[in-house]
Each structure stands twice: as structure tokens, then as C-alpha cells.
Design a protein that fits this description.
Layout: E1 12-13, H1 23-29, H2 39-56, E2 62-66, H3 69-80, E3 86-91, H4 94-105, E4 109-114, H5 123-132, E5 136-142, E6 144-145, E7 150-151, H6 155-163, E8 167-172, E9 190-193, E10 205-210, H7 212-219, H8 232-238, H9 251-267, H10 269-289, E11 306-310, H11 317-328, E12 330-331, E13 333-334, E14 343-347, H12 355-371, H13 380-388
Parallel strand pairs: 1-12, 3-4, 3-5, 5-8, 8-9
Antiparallel strand pairs: 2-10, 6-7, 9-10, 11-14, 13-14
Helix pairs in contact: 1-9, 2-9, 5-6, 9-10, 10-12, 10-13, 11-12, 12-13
The structure holds pyridoxal-5'-phosphate.
């Protein structure tokens, strides 16, 4: 094999992330490197900031942490939590558990707000938490729990937290670019996200947005944040101010993310979100028509970017994924943590959020299940009906959604 040919060329990544990267973005990755003090770098960072603000729905400082989504999580919690602070973390899946563990490592006194995996945290639970503990300061939630495919609504909780003078941290790693995050509308104080899921950019840069009051709290800490690399107040201040240079900017990743965000802006966020919503509904309709059961029951509670489906009894998880990979060059994700072996996670997001990919993954899964002796029907007709439907709740959906 030619050394320049990757071994899995053409693999279609329809799992929980990363997703495939468009040519335009890959080319941006090969942009010439800029020196730390080049004014062109400052304008690149300014454009990044503006586009991030648009897609995250905020007028407040937006920037990126050099690291993956987990680095964003760590930076957010490390800066907002002082040792001894009272923190409530919503746990309804694997990433909620990760957030809780991290809040503990930051020295927080952590109260767990629980829901069954696949469920969501009720605003009443947050209200109760403030009633029980008037010293509660920080509330942390996962908007899109990719381990279960559940969507956490934020609006009511955001205003509740604000009314108690608390600070809301939100994980938007798999939702940014695929559905509204609404940082300002939902009164989110610190929001971190990921580049490699619905934005279809390379992993390694975590978008972040901070409210003015969150930055003020970070600056007013009684003990300094125990990290220089993740000093968020400084990173926010230093964004685009090259003389402050907190670390060497990963220029290639900035260029790629910028190109990915330009693609979002060209399509328009509303159209893009509608495209994701419709593709997810089509995928769900197809899976259900095949006789499969989605992990999250109510359609309104499902994440728009990643869908979890139960593995039917008697079917080999690994064999099905192997069949899909070798027969169709398609990758779907296994279950995480306690859901390993129980579900598959299918992500149709970013540049992969295409009608033909919805049909492809349904076909691949059908073939793999039939090969295992599971008597499933076809999901294609049900999915196509949704893809063609001109539903009133997606007024900005592209007319030519079926034209891949
Ligand atoms: C993927 C994911 C993360 C982790 O992001 P990395 O980029 O893998 O570090 C965190 N939270 C959620 C909800 C995710 O889906």
C-alpha cells in the first residue's frame, strides 16, 4: 500500500464522534503556520471569536481551549469551583459522571442530581437543591448526553440558577453546530464544547464561552486557580492579544475550526439545526420501522446529533459493528460504561448529516442484523418519508434535503 494512503480511507464515521471532515476544512488544516506575533493570527482569532459567538448564541467572550472537549470540561470546572464550594452536578449518563468526578477533583462539595440513564434532570430537582442548600453556587449539566442519546432542556434551569445567584456550567460538546445551545438565552455562565462532533472539525480545540459574571467570579477567586494552562479568565483576556501569548496557538487547528465555522455561517445556523433535527427524526423512524427500540422513549427528549438504539436480544454487538465496518465502511459507536453491550450510538452530524448517510446506516444495520438472524424489516421507506416531509416546525429546512 502507498504509504500516503490511510489504511481506512473512505470510512464514514456515523458514531458518537468524531465525524468526517470536509475537504475544505482538511485543506485549511494545511494552511501555512503563523508566528505567535503575526497580526494575521490576531485577525484569524477575531473571526473565530465572532463565528463562535454566533453558533453558541452569545455576545460574551468566546474563545477556544487548546485541548479536546474534556479539556474544556476541566477548564470550566477548575475555574468556577473553589475548594469547598457547593456544587450540584446532573448525572444521567457517562458524561455526567465524568463531570461529577471532575467537580470533586476540583475540591467541590458535590451534590448529585440524578436521573435514570437516558432521562433528564428536572428543573424541580434544581429548585430543591437550592432549597436544601442555600450555599449552592455552581450547577453543572450536560446538554447532550451522548452516552444515552438524551437531550437536557436548559431554559428553565438557567433562569432558576441565575435567580439564586448561582453559576450554570453546560457541556455542549456534541450539540454545538447541530442544535441550538443558546448560551445567553439559557443564562449559561460557562459553556464548553467540542470541535470534532457536529462542527466536523479536527479534535483538539474546545470552544468556550463565559458570561461577564463568570469571568468576574474567576478573577475574584480567594485562592488562585491551580492551573496556569487552564486559567480561563486569562485565556479569555488573552484571546487575540498576541502580546499576552499564554501558549503557542495551535494555528493549524484554529484554521481548520475557522473553516468549519465559515461553513456553518454560510449554511446559516437555523438551516443547519433543522437539517440535523430532520435527519435524526428520519433515522429514528427508520430504526423503529426495523423493529428496533430507541434508548430514549419520547422523541422530544432525544438529542438531535446522536441516537442510541437498543441491541436486540441474541445479537452480537461486536459482530454487527464488524459487519457494518467491513461491509459498508461505516463506523457506529458501542455503548459506554454501564450501557456497553446494550446499545449502539449512531451520530449523523455535521458534514455527515446527510439524507444518503441516514439511508446508508439503516441499510448497513439491516444487513448486519439479518446476517445475525435477527428478523428485521427495512427502515428505508419510513426514513425517506421523514426526509421528504415539509414539516412546519422546520421552516428553514433546505428544500433539496434529499439531494446529497
Ligand atoms: C464527546 C463528549 C465529551 C468528551 O469530549 P472529548 O473531545 O472526547 O474530550 C464530553 N462530553 C460529551 C457530552 C461528549 O459527547
Amino acid at each position: 500500500m502507498d504509504a500516503a494512503t490511510p489504511p481506512c480511507s473512505g470510512r464514514v464515521l456515523l458514531g458518537a464522534g468524531p465525524s468526517n471532515i470536509e475537504e475544505r476544512v482538511l485543506r485549511a488544516l494545511a494552511s501555512p503556520i503563523l508566528a505567535n506575533g503575526d497580526p494575521a493570527l490576531a485577525s484569524l482569532m477575531a473571526e473565530l471569536q465572532g463565528l463562535l459567538q454566533q453558533v453558541m448564541g452569545t455576545v460574551h467572550p468566546a474563545f477556544v481551549i487548546a485541548g479536546t472537549g474534556t479539556a474544556g470540561m476541566e477548564a470550566a470546572l477548575l475555574n468556577l469551583i473553589e475548594p469547598g464550594d457547593h456544587v450540584a452536578v446532573g448525572v444521567a449518563g457517562y458524561f455526567g459522571e465524568r463531570m461529577k468526578r471532575m467537580a470533586e477533583l476540583c475540591g467541590g462539595r458535590v451534590m448529585q442530581l440524578s436521573a435514570p440513564w437516558g432521562g433528564r434532570i428536572d428543573p424541580e430537582q434544581v429548585a430543591d437543591a437550592f432549597r436544601e442548600d442555600p450555599d449552592l453556587r455552581v450547577v453543572a449539566l450536560v446538554q447532550g448526553e451522548t452516552s444515552t442519546g438524551a437531550l437536557q432542556p436548559l431554559a428553565e434551569i438557567g433562569s432558576l440558577v441565575r435567580a439564586h445567584d448561582g453559576f450554570l456550567v453546560v457541556d455542549a460538546v456534541p450539540t454545538i453546530g447541530g442544535q441550538p445551545v443558546g448560551v445567553d438565552a439559557n443564562a449559561i455562565d460557562v459553556c464548553y464544547a467540542g470541535s470534532q462532533k457536529a462542527l466536523s472539525a479536527p479534535a483538539g480545540v474546545a470552544p468556550m464561552a463565559c458570561s461577564a459574571r463568570a469571568l468576574a467570579r474567576m478573577r475574584g477567586r480567594s485562592c488562585p486557580v491551580r492551573s496556569m494552562y487552564f486559567d480561563v479568565a486569562f485565556l479569555a483576556e488573552a484571546w487575540g492579544r498576541l502580546e499576552l501569548c499564554p501558549h503557542t496557538p495551535p494555528v493549524s487547528l484554529y484554521c481548520a475550526l475557522l473553516e468549519a465555522l465559515r461553513i456553518v455561517a454560510e449554511e446559516g445556523a437555523a438551516r443547519r439545526f433543522a437539517r440535523h433535527r430532520r435527519a435524526q427524526r428520519a433515522l429514528a423512524a427508520g430504526l423503529e420501522a426495523m423493529g428496533l427500540v430507541l434508548y430514549v422513549d419520547a422523541p422530544a427528549d432525544r438529542l438531535w446529533t446522536v441516537t442510541a438504539v437498543r441491541i436486540p436480544p441474541g445479537v452480537s454487538d461486536a459482530e454487527v459493528r464488524r459487519h457494518i465496518r467491513s461491509g459498508f465502511n461505516v463506523e457506529i459507536s458501542e455503548g459506554l460504561g454501564r450501557l456497553a453491550g446494550q446499545i449502539w450510538r449512531i451520530g449523523v452530524m455535521g458534514s455527515n448529516c446527510r439524507p444518503d448517510y441516514v439511508l446508508l446506516v439503516l441499510t448497513a444495520l439491516e444487513r448486519a442484523l439479518l446476517a445475525q438472524g435477527f428478523p428485521c424489516g427495512s427502515g428505508l421507506a419510513a426514513a425517506e418519508t421523514v426526509l421528504r416531509a415539509d414539516t412546519e416546525d422546520t421552516p428553514n429546512a433546505p428544500e433539496s434535503l434529499l439531494a446529497a
